[in-house]
Each structure stands twice: as structure tokens, then as C-alpha cells.
Amino acid sequence: MAAEPERVLRMREASDAVEAIGWRYLLGTLRTAVAVTSLAQASTVVAKAVEACGVDADRHLSCDVRADKVVLALQSLDAAAVTDVDAKLAIRVSLAVREAGLATSPDVASEDARAVQLVEIAVDAMDIPAVRPFWKAVFAYEDERPNAGPTDALLDPQRQGPAIWFQQMDAPRPQRNRIHFDICVPHDEAKRRIAAGLTAGGRLTYEDEAPAFWVLADPEGNEVCITTWQGREAE
User: Fold this and answer.
1) Domain span at residue 90?
2) Distance (Å, whole) CA 85 – CA 5
3) Is the separation of the CB atoms in 104 and 23 below 8 Å?
4) Domain-ending residue, one of 99, 134, 168
5) Backbone angles phi, psi at 171, to 5 degrees
6) pLDDT in tens, 150-167
7) Is residue 1 part of a domain?
8) What is the pTM of this model?
9) Which tens digit of pLDDT belongs to each residue from 1-22?
């Protein structure tokens, strides 16, 4: 009998499915962190996570392994989105980590730890199909399959660098930076991150579409967006 097809979760559905077990939904991926005391312990966490995911590990699970922390991410590579399978795997991974005497945590609302997050580079362009090949070439990036159109985002094949996406401009803006960072944070981390930026000398320049995103600028006007999954169409 063929396996049932994966079902892509709506944003709120994905968030609600994992928030109580220490994961956060970050625009297309589920993420959590596990504090460890050594690389040896970190490797144990990864082994537990892989075992918990079973045959789905290779197509859903990714791990960033350090001596003090393991960051785990779940996303269906086939759908380039979070599916019902990812939500089930998050529960299984959290249980496996707990059995090892550790915990999955998003590290939110704390100045002592960086919350799990997702960083993207946004390039404003008048002609996206014309500029996209350049950025794909110089970064040695690849298409985010199954989305491989002439205006779609680009990904690091090793999943180490930030994704690059392209924002359509309606008119040239020579006096404004045309490349900015999007920092997608857990929805319950956004206010603390914004406050930290303001305390560090930044200013809030746009919030009409919050909590989907806020635009902050540094003292010289260079912009960054703090984003969450909330406040968007079709949550």
C-alpha cells in the first residue's frame, strides 16, 4: 500500500502543533535547540533525533552541531514546506531528547541565549529574472525545489548560508539600500529583539504590517526586517 501524501500545514496549524514541546515555526521550517556540554553529547542528540525520525530523517531533518548546542530543523524537502509529517517528527524527536535527560527549547525571551531563527537576504530588483542568475552564480546557490521559477528564492546547497529572495520594485530607489536582511524569529521573541535593536541605536521605520514584519534602521538608515509567521494571509 502506497504511503499517504504529506499535507502542507497552514502557518498557525504548524505553530500550534509544536509550540508546547519547545519548537517554533519559522516561515517554512520547524526549529528547536538542545543545550549540550560537549560534542560527544551533541552527537548523541543527533543520533537520537535521526533514530526518532527513522526513514523520514533524510528528507526532513537537518542538524547544526556545536559543542554547546544542537539546532534541529524539520522541513519536507519534497514540499519545501512544513507538513503533517514534520509535526509528528518534532514530537518524536522531543520525546527522544527528553529520554536522554535533555530538552528541546527555542531559547526565546532571553538576553543570554540567541533564539532559534532564520536569516534571509532580500534583494530589491526591477527585473528579477535578469538579476537572479547573477546572485545564483556568485553564491553558488541552487533553486529551492520544487520552486525553481525565474523569480523564486535561492538556497545554499549546504544549508549553511542565508537564503536569498527577490522583492519586486515598482520604481528605482537609488537613495535607499536595495539589499537588506530578513531575520525571522519566533513570534514570542520578536518584541524583545526589536527592543534590543532600538536600545542599540536603531529606529523603527515601519510597523503597519506587524506582526508579519517590522522594519528597523541603523543610525545611517540601513534597514533590516524582523519577521514572524503571524499576521500573514492564509495563516
Assistant:
1) 11-99
2) 10
3) yes
4) 99
5) -160, 150
6) 999 999 998 888 999 999
7) no
8) 0.88
9) 345 689 999 999 999 999 999 9
